[in-house]
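Appendix B, Record 12. Input sequence as logged:
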Amino acid sequence: MTDTAPRPTLEAVAARAGVSRATVSRVVNGGDGVREPLVERVRRAVEELGYVPNQAARSLVTRRHDAVAVVIAEPEARVFADPFFALQLRGISKELTAHDNQLVLLLTEGRDDHARVARYLAGGHVDGALVFSLHLDDPLPGLIQGAGVPTVFGGRPGWSDGRAAATGPTVYVDSDNRGGARDAVRHLASLGRTRIAHITGPLDQTSAADRLDGYRDVMGDADPELVAESDFTPAGGERAMRALLDRRPDLDALFAANDLTAAGALRVLRERGLRVPEDVAVVGFDDMLPVAEQTDPPLTTVRQDIEEMGRLMARLLLRRLDRPGGGTGPRATDEDGPGGTPAGPDDAGAGVVLPTTLVRRASA
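Logged structural output:
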């Protein structure tokens, strides 16, 4: 057994700083109305004594919990199997940690979880929410609106009715999915490929729909048999690749909607005895290094900065929370990241759209 020193109290800090207990409380809990010289004395005393503010008391003064919910509209098995989510969470976590905020992860395994998530958000446990991987029929946006929680979305929202959250316009961070898809297909066409197939993601998500639109922008009236819908998973890529080869064995190129899909497709091409890129050139989307660099052959793909997307989501939300009344949708600035393309102040929402780049490797 060892004796531990008692934790420093507000009174001890006040005595060290030569101010009242009330002054110390206002300084350490984020209150206003204290002259700067006194603030500096209190901060010095806090550091010297190692005082740790009481979070409950701080919340009463600031009305902030220093906690943010991250809501992923996917089942647990998908979230922990897909490196996309790990990268986005890493960006979010870095930004929240830098501002001394806690990350609370909420997953939706099924419809029954939506009401649970809504109750938690409405219960005042967190200051705001970061929400991504939404599907078009997902009730979460409406439930979050009802909870009145400031929110930033990952990915362009799919609704077109101009709806806005109760605390302001719809704010989101996305990548240039359509432009990146155009770059991928143009690259394949520049290699002399004319029968370019596309394996989509789930078309009830805007990222997948935008990538299909980018493919069509280049291919025009391409044979519909060259398009197969999938689900952003390796197994889905395998199924879609088999279906494409069964109906169009003459295809000579493939644009896959993400790297995991491409990895599954590559396995099937190898099983069928087709060489990549000699017989079929393949391009993916994401540039998730654990996947793209380890496929056989290494994958040519469209890079989106997934970690930066997460960081910007958190940054926009924290900036919004720091404004009186929770703020409205922020205008992006140069410090928001490379290529940020904000919506105008009169738009129904405010978005930051990050650029994409083609990364060439051995598959195309």
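The longest helix spans residues 306-322.
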